[in-house]
Design goal:
The chain is mainly alpha-helical. It has helices spanning 8-15, 18-27, 39-50, 74-79, 94-113, 130-143, 145-157. The chain contains 7 helices and no strands. The chain starts with 7 loop residues before the first helix and ends with a helix. The model has no long low-confidence stretch (mean pLDDT 92).
């Protein structure tokens, strides 16, 4: 008889609360049929960024580094209306963090759906294929849209 190994998803399902489930579902309402994103996308990002909200994986409150449930940088968190201070860091509030993350994913989808000027002369290259675009959106969530746009142009030159 073989022992079944527990996965991160199994562990997540054991500790998932109704509040977290509702926060992710509510946040996923920012998506629509045009963006190829959904609650499963948000869950995947949540898993990747903080191992489904494990405290030891979320970083420190008020940190200048990415932190919280979705490892948002302070600048991105503030861009989406979150407070980031030592005493009040909304990146650690699942309701605020999941909503901000869903809106950021939605915006990234828009940025990579067509050629978009981000900052200065940094421009994305629009990706027509929805499945391929989703890969760029997820990469941009992690590395930043500017980094991915620059990589697109380096790839074009190569």
């Amino acid at each position: 008889m073989t022992n079944k190994q527990s996965s991160d998803v199994d562990a997540w399902l054991e500790r998932e609360t109704g509040h977290v489930r509702k926060a992710l579902e509510n946040a996923s309402r920012h998506f629509d049929g045009n963006d190829n994103l959904g609650v499963n996308t948000l869950e995947a990002v949540y898993a990747r960024e903080s191992s489904f909200g494990l405290p030891k994986k979320m970083g420190e409150r008020g940190s200048a580094k990415p932190a919280g449930h979705f490892h948002l940088s302070p600048a991105t968190a503030k861009r989406y209306g979150l407070t980031v201070t030592k005493n009040n860091d909304q990146r650690f509030d699942i309701d605020y963090a999941s909503s901000a993350s869903a809106r950021y994913l939605k915006d990234l989808h828009t940025f990579f759906s067509k050629d978009t000027t981000l900052v200065g002369d940094t421009k994305t290259v629009g990706i027509k294929n929805p499945s391929e675009r989703k890969k760029f959106v997820l990469g941009a969530f992690n590395a930043g849209e500017g980094s991915i746009a620059k990589a697109q142009h380096l790839a074009e030159k190569a």
